[in-house]
Design a protein that fits this description.
6 helices; single chain; alpha+beta; Arc Repressor Mutant, subunit A; 9 strands
């Protein structure tokens, strides 16, 4: 499976597992799971065909491990705009987490902090390199440091997804560091 096809199938799966399952007639359970056969059949019924082998390749090859497979079911690991309960327990974060963005969003972030926007949670990275890659998807990256230890001490809840993405509802501006130093 070539890279272009891998990306195309991955984006299709992400769109319909995270945001628009109903557009192809899928109904995820409360935790976001759908049957793999149901996903493949629904996609084919909507003129997008892929095989189980292609799905398995996308799941295995995705550098961000966006998808989780459990038996005959699949779901997106995080990033949903639909209502799901991923069943992730609260976790103690490392002292600092990181968020990649671009300069054009900094004024709003300084004023409002990090908000989930169309997702359920703000996504944070455990390392600066990952946050840099995330920010670079939208342009020249800017990496913000999040004082997650202080947030946790102040009662903010963190969860970590199966693929290592740290999730929290919001990050108020006072917990953000806009320079390279902590």
């Amino acid at each position: 499976m070539d890279e272009r096809r891998t990306v195309k199938v991955s984006k299709y799966m992400a769109r319909h597992l995270r945001h628009q399952p109903e557009a192809i007639g899928l109904t995820p359970d409360e935790a976001g799971w759908v049957g793999i056969d149901a996903l493949i059949a629904a996609a084919a019924a909507h003129d997008f065909r892929f095989t189980r082998a292609e799905l398995d390749h996308v799941v295995a090859a995705n550098d961000k491990q966006r998808f989780a497979v459990e038996g005959t079911r699949i779901r997106a690991s995080q990033g949903h705009s639909i209502e799901v309960d991923l069943g992730l327990p609260p976790a103690t974060p490392p002292p600092y987490l990181f968020h990649g963005t671009v300069a054009r969003h900094l004024a709003a972030i300084r004023a409002e902090g990090l908000l989930p926007m169309n997702r359920h949670d703000v996504h944070l990275s455990a390392d600066r390199a990952t946050a840099t890659r995330v920010g670079a998807r939208r342009g020249r990256p800017v990496v913000l440091s999040v004082d997650s230890a202080a947030m946790h001490r102040d009662g903010r809840v963190f969860r970590v997804s199966a693929n290592g993405v740290w999730l929290t509802h919001t990050v108020p501006p006072g917990y953000l560091r806009f320079s390279e130093s902590h």
